[in-house]
Amino acid sequence: MDHVRELRNRALLAAAGLLVGAVVGWILYPPLFAALQRPVVELADERGSEVLLNFPGIGAPLDVQLKVALFAGAILSSPWWIYQLWAFVTPGLTKTERRYTLGFVGAAVPLFLLGAGVAWVLMPKAVAILTGFTPTGAGNIISATDYLEFVMRMVLAFGVAFLLPVLMVGLTAAGVVRARTWLAGWRWAVLLSAVFAAIATPTGDALTMLTLTVPMVALYFLAIGIGALFDRRRARRIAAEPA
């Protein structure tokens, strides 16, 4: 029950941080939405065709603004909710291992933002490829809600994908999973990384999939190496303790 209460408290703190970030996202909605729809606007200028975002309904503009605010809140508050995730794990660590908290957050936040940034760079290409299937002479009026969900799924999926290896190190440091267990499942990790990339990248082309798959696999093996150091340190400590 102590662990459940701790999880509840950390979840509430993370939600509070997300709410604060969403308020900032609500305030910055006009420039954020302009950045989100830029790929569509550039396509319309380039092709000279009718490619635009559509708000299908009276309440659609409000719905889109709320989603954009929450999306921005998830990105802006990522250092806070990542810290809360790690703080939930640290009670199972020794005092020496808890010193790695700042290192965990310091590595997790840039990796999450890096993954989100990669998705943001690839997003215009994805929009161009998918709208390129529109027949000649036809228009492509894109639902604003569908378009936003597409962008959110892509950006957050890339961010979480880059964050997973850091969670692996955290679980290994907490003694939940040993590094040899991660190494034994490397084939499944490669396969699941490819499947995840195929789902998270809506274009489906090999280059975009490899852009996500290769870093995920490389970070997976890097996490195994760091986890092995934690296992060795724990083994030496146990061996040094009196029987």
What's the short story on this structure?
By secondary structure, the chain is mostly helical. It is 80% helix and 3% strand. The protein has a two-stranded parallel sheet.
Plain-language structure description:
- With 243 residues, the protein is mostly helical.
- The chain has one domain.
- It contains 10 helices and 2 strands, in the order ααβααααβαααα.
- It has a two-stranded parallel ribbon with strand order 1-2.
- The longest helix has 35 residues.
- The model has no long low-confidence stretch (mean pLDDT 80).
Q: Helicity level, as a percent range?
A: over 70%
Count of DSSP-assigned helices:
10
- Biggest beta sheet attributes: 2 strands, parallel
Query: Compute the gyration radius: what is it?
Result: 21 Å
